[in-house]
Specification:
two-stranded antiparallel sheet, mainly alpha, 2 domains, 3% strand
Length: 300
Amino acid sequence: MLRWRFFLGTVLVAALLGLFWLDHAASLPGLALMPVLVASVVLGTQELLGLLRAGGLGPGAVTVYGANLLVVLAPWLGPLAVQLADEAGPGGIPSGAGAGGLWIALAMGIGLVALFAAQIRRFRAPDTAAANVAGAALAMVYLGLLPGLLVQLRMDWGIAALASLLIIVKLGDTGAYAAGKLLGRHKLAPVLSPGKTVEGAFGALVACCIGAWATFQWLVPAITGSPPCSGIGWRAVLFGAALCVAGMLGDLSESLLKRGAGRKESSTWMPGFGGVLDMLDSVLLAGPVAYLLWLAGLVP
């Protein structure tokens, strides 16, 4: 299984790097990556709805799918609509760096209205109405807002920012799996996730820090066409450590959802990786941390 995981992980990373290159070369930012993101959100939403139903909740599926897609596409389609309509300017529609956050907030507001409307239409008697709305809102945040921030990261800071996030976090996942399998003795979260170990967490930290240093030393300058980053060492290591912690929290967060639903996996369609949520969980919670650190100027 370890060899299969490494092989499949290598293939997926190679495919993503190819898409990153296509997206970097595209005239419209996000054009090559958006279909993959949309497919991931749709499949992930299907898995999350399955977990919510297993936990006794029944949010309206159609509305949840629609709200998630609306939120995740908002930071991409909103500025694009402004650009095509040429309506930006004083008193006009917001555009430019950071404006995507306003589109995300607006999309979430509209999505929440739709979620309440759907639950109102379905209401027949006192039951789990509030819990259903809460479950639907969780789905919108988890698979709408968080992926939307990944889009915003790409739009504001370029393809190098998104590539660095995915590479560092996935190196952490691989390091945790390898160290846990080879050296794991002490359980990290025995009740929530019995397979995770302290040794695996340390392996993830080492992999993320080394990966972050190498990424900002060579890959990011190669993508941006800038000279190698000088003095980036400790900042890259700090960036990698922060993403490592956020990624592990993301992994444990999805474990929390699965255990709450009495499930071991969100899906089994990809042997060695589980479902889409199992592949996205660490990236989703690392996204806001990465954006904050880019915004703070920790990394170039």
